[in-house]
Amino acid sequence: MTHFINTFVAAHVYIGVFVLMMLESACIPIPSEVTMLVAGYVAQLPGQRSKFVPVIILGVVGNLVGSLLAYGVGRAGGRPMITRWGKYILLREHDVDRAERWFARFGQPAVFFSRLLPVVRTFISLPAGVARMPFLRFSVLTVLGCLPWVFLLTFVGQQAGEHWKDWKDALHYVDYAVALLILAGIAYLVVQRRRGARSADVAAAQDA
Q1: Do the beta carbons of residue 128 and residue 71 sit within 8 Å?
Q2: pLDDT (tens digit, 9 = 90+) per residue, 43-71?
Q3: pTM over 0.70
Q4: What is the DSSP code string of 153-177?
């Protein structure tokens, strides 16, 4: 995945940043850390320095659009829709539970503060939608929360400069984390399917 992000963002920096950041905020496991670090590196190359501000703007806008999609899903279908369809995008209920606890504990300000936290930042839009948080307030807090995160990552990528090779190689560890997440999602689906089949067998035996 790191290689794909590197290649995609380097070749199509504006489109790449917007699309990948949108997907990440729409609960797809794409690490924004890699996306914006690569964008920051591209923005410091000769002839590319004018791209620094645009990639930050597109990163924030991508986060907002993805967050609004997740917010809409939560608002329209609530938890039942997430439970039914989340497995198709490897959306683990455990992650949603964590985001819900965060939202329940801190209320609407959680939409702002959670944008700086791993995992929770990706899924906080769902419980905000389920809770029917006011649309405008959600949008404003999302932008304000995403801006420092996106700026910091882009700035770090830009400052890496000639040391980018070392940084880029270290980003492969992000691949491992995403791979573990995907494997955990697959394992979860398998266990749930087996439990469902076992429950059906028990119910059939009791009816008999």
Answers
A1: yes
A2: 888 877 778 899 999 999 999 999 999 88
A3: no
A4: HHHHHHHHGGGHHHHHHHTHHHHHH
